[in-house]
Amino acid sequence: MCGIAGWIGPAASDATLRAMTDIIHHRGPDGDGHAMLRLGDGTTAALGHRRLAIIDLTTGDQPMKSHDGRFTVVYNGEIYNYLELRSELKAKGAVLRTHSDTEVILEAWRAWGKDSLVKLRGMFAFALHDNGDNSVVLARDPFGKKPLFYATTPLPNGQGLVFGSEVTALLEHPAINAELDVDSLHDFLCWRYVPGPNTFFRGIRKLAPGGLITWKAGQWREERYWVAPEAQGGGRLPVPSDPIAGFLEVFDEAVRLRLRADVPLGAFLSSGLDSSSIVATLKHLGAPEIRTFSVGFRGDMDAELPAAADTARLLGTIHTPIELETDDMADLLPMLSRHRGAPMSEVADLPIYMMSVEAARHVKVVLSGEGSDELFAGYPKHLAEAHLGRLAPSGIMSLLGRGILAATAIAPKSDRRLNIAGRALRERRFEDRMVRWFGAITPAERAQIWTGPPATRQPGQAPFQSANGASPLRQVLHFDQTSWLPDNLLERMDAMTMAASIEGRAPFMDIRLAEYASSLPEEWRIKGRTTKRIVREALAPRLPEAVLRRPKNGFRMPVSAWFRGQLREPFNEIVLGSGAITRDYLDPDAIRRLMSDHSSGRRDHAKTLWALFALETFLCEFF
User: Fold this and answer.
1) What is the distance between the alpha carbons of residues 402 and 399, in angstroms, rounded to a whole number?
2) What is the crossing angle of helices 243-257 and 273-284, to 10°?
3) Integer Cα distance of 340 and 80 in angstroms
4) In a designed cystine with 98, which of 59, 140, 163, 204 is the match (CB 3.0 to 4.6 A)?
């Protein structure tokens, strides 16, 4: 795991490249490297690298050249099946001088070109120069677990590129300025993140998951070499004859591959199914001395620390609980916003960072449960869409949603999740329901508070639109896998772990496992009221009964109480103050009404209030 930065364009000073890598020092405190490669016509490929040494600690430094000097690469990530690919390449006559996965990328590209990318089981973002034709390629892993940002710059005969693992690296280049993309701010208000390829910075884009850019002689093109299998509305593989045996084979391999490291390794452990499944499988595979880490807040009655500790005891791990004080959380927002290059719109970002800081004192790699819900259907929205999605066009689902809202309005203590479900189900448009499930406000609500200029971005192909004829459940899963995951959860996981100089690995995000999941009939994901059926049934023999019985809780934080207590005044000062940047775009009176409704207990606007609080903090930090 590392950080990369560089450009293709006019020669600039070594100091510029070093500034670009120095600002992402946290991504790779173990070393750095820089190369300036002449491409002709006064153009240079500048490749910079910060290293967090995980595999081949002695000969894996970057930039790395191939044995004959033709290829040079800087790379962020891990290729978990590098040993198998190494054997395959050596059988083809490849010359390999190191024991690193980085060299495998070089020789795989020589052997198979862009077809090599689908062979790489891992997480990666890399820039590779081919001295044979003076081309440069930028590539990103299929699900977008590793970030790669880029911007174009003018050349006399075309365009150059500036790129990096974090936005801050690009902003160190003299050709790149921090200019707010107002359309992205407009998008953020609904989704609580900016759907790719856009960012908050005008002219800076995200390379798409499964994306590839090829640059040559001032011309460049972007293409997709892989898309999530749900895009086809069904699986690419035949339906397995024994679903449970097939799942265990692929899942165990995904976990086993992610054990490859030359440094200590541990796992995040909540009280839930996903992380418990990974830890139980580590034990099943014979991993010695499993270290686990969990986090919660002091005084929070809903904290999962006791349940996580109980699971750790039953699974026999060396467990470290981290208990946090709520007063310290808001102070982290500016620093972490810079690392992410976006607002910290998920409150859980903060404790994940704190858990990563503690874990980094003991291990250098952690496994986590990201992706299980999005591959195997673990959220309430999956239940709702699976059973009711086909009723949306007729209006029946909308009527049901209105009925749920009416019931929660008169209940003395209405369930927050039931209220969200009611508001989501009453929306007829698929996009509006997705906003309701996990977003902040709907487009109609946004229009009531927006005072900025009209959005100018053309609504092109949405990243979550799936093939015609896809079932409602597969449509939601495709949205999750192509937008919610790469643009929010995976971006969050990368930024928070890297800020603490620790590597996060997600076995559920294995592409072979994703393709297997898509091949399953839907009843192996949702059956009745059971979510993630295949995961529960396949791993039941390995898991404590308490984990299987425990309802899905998510990483819950007392944010509603915060905005009625210690965050109320900071919110008023930061978001509603006379110097707030958002005052140029949002109606402060409408925001005051949101806070008033929340403070009085009439409505729970915690999700929206936090999004606005994080947004203003981010804007002040960059703009």
Assistant:
1) 5
2) 80
3) 25
4) 59
Catalytic residue among 2, 363, 499, 574: 2
Pairing, β 265-268 against β 219-224: unpaired
Average pLDDT in the 497-514 region?
97
Dump pLDDT digits (tens) for 1-19.
Answer: 689 999 999 988 899 999 9
Q: What angle do CA 312, 560, 339 make, to 5 degrees?
A: 70
Q: What is the pLDDT of residues 379-398, one digit of tens each?
A: 999 999 898 876 766 666 66
Per the structure block, which two tokens stand in for 527?
């059956």
Q: Would you say the pTM of this structure is higher than 0.90?
A: yes
Whether 2 sits among the annotated catalytic residues: the reply is yes
Q: Which single residue is written with the structure tokens 């300025």?
A: 177
The residues pairing with 48 across neighbouring beta strands, listed in sequence order, are: 5, 34
What SS3 string covers 175-219? CCCCCECHHHHHHHHHHCCCCCCCCCECCCEECCCCEEEEEECCE
Kindly state the tokens that stand for 539: 């791993």
Distance CA 207, CA 148 (A): 6
Q: Report how far apart, in Å, the C-alpha atoms of 595 and of each of 203, 373, 576, 603 are.
A: 34, 32, 10, 9
Q: Please tell me the chain's helix, strand, coil percentages from 3-state DSSP, rounded to the nearest 5.
A: 45, 20, 35
Strand duo 503-505 + 365-367: pairing? parallel
d(CA 4, CA 49): 5
Q: Are 512 and 222 in contact (CB under 8 A)?
A: no
